[in-house]
Design brief:
single chain, 486 residues, 2 strands
Amino acid sequence: MTKEATRALLMFIGILTLMFTYAYRGLFNSGMLSYGDLFAFPSQAVRWISDFTSAWSPLSLGVYESYSPGFFFHAILILLFGNNAILAQKFSFFSLLPVASLTMYIFLSRLISSQAGKFAVSLVYGINPLTIHEFWSGELGLLSAYAIFPLLLLFLFNLSEGRKQIRNILLFTLFFALASSFNINAILLFTPVLLAFLIRKNLRRVFIVASLFLASLALVLLLQLPYFLGEFTATGERLHPTAYMLEALTHELKDNFCSFTMINILGYFGFPLPIFAFLALLLVHTEPQRRYVINFSVVTILINLFLWATHNGWTWGLFRTFPILFAYRHQAKLMYSLSLLYYTLTAITVDELQKRLSRPLLGLINVSGIFRIIMLISLCTLIIPGVIAYDYRFLSGDMGLSNRVAHGDYAAKGIPPTFYRIGKWLDDRRRHEGFFRTLWLPLDFQTDQILKIIDPHTFMAPAGSLVKGYPTTHYIKFILHRTLEA
């Protein structure tokens, strides 16, 4: 890396640090967060290390539960922070959006030469309506994968062009395994992007890339074999769901997509972004970028058509026939794939625009000096609509979590200390009086999530029942029935 490139990278890291320090300014003094899909971290790393190495969980009356390697990585992080779980959780979650921008910058340094394009597109990749919404939803797992996706693209680009294949396939495998360890659905979300590298005339190169990917996928599955055995073999819910589970998943699919329209995609990305992205089709005429632009555009269009067809109910039978597709039952999940494709195409557009603007206009006037102003306007055009659409969450100081607290998510800015005091009191009672289980009433989804960390020896409600509400009387009957069966 040249001195100029190093200086630019350090400047970009400095900009990210300033922006996200400002964005998170109201969260640094908060306690352990627990809301949406964001789970609390245990106070001792040994808890998750034990869960990862065991197939048995003490929850409820004791259940089979397989923990992904992501929990093990988080446990190592807790150890590195001296068993300060709050600090480990904040570092893990708060770093995801800036790391996403940074990895996109690293990838674009390989793809384009425009410094303005690298800065603008990398920033928007990490700060956009999709990432702000997913942060607000507590999506720790998929945002972790999202931050790794640009590196996977980098290794695929190198593989596609035959560069250091052994090195790049090993790096691809390592980071692909890391991404899927945080959320198993990362494999399915990155697969559509992979198709862009398989659409080409050179069948020999297609075969090589496909073979290397399949070999990589096999290694990923091998690295996560204990977790996959639990997810697919023991429970079988993903590949062969029960009739009840199949109906529940289908109902959830219909609920999500019936209210979804193509306008929602513009809500995630803003109206100008698709225009910026597909403009590359008109501007790029040199290989190999021309091929990448066409392939990425085709895959982007196919994903949008799939979303539209699912909204109209035309693919529901396909979901029931191949239950693994239910990983896409939330339309926001495919937005991760679209985001990677859109912003890559946008970067190519920006790069090509700069090349054209750097040529003297009519042989007399050099207009490249105004390019930074154009990029600033473009950046504002891409970001501002999303910030407005999501209640200024990025500028609020706490990413909009105060709004969650106001609507009943009492632990969105920190688990109340009372829970920890009760948990300690219960642990002391168990040490002196012997083992017993607890029953917390009334039980809601957020309390249920907190208890998995604070008091794992408690009775739990049926999986998924608390999301839409579960009457206390039904909960008691469920516990009594389970106790009698045991």
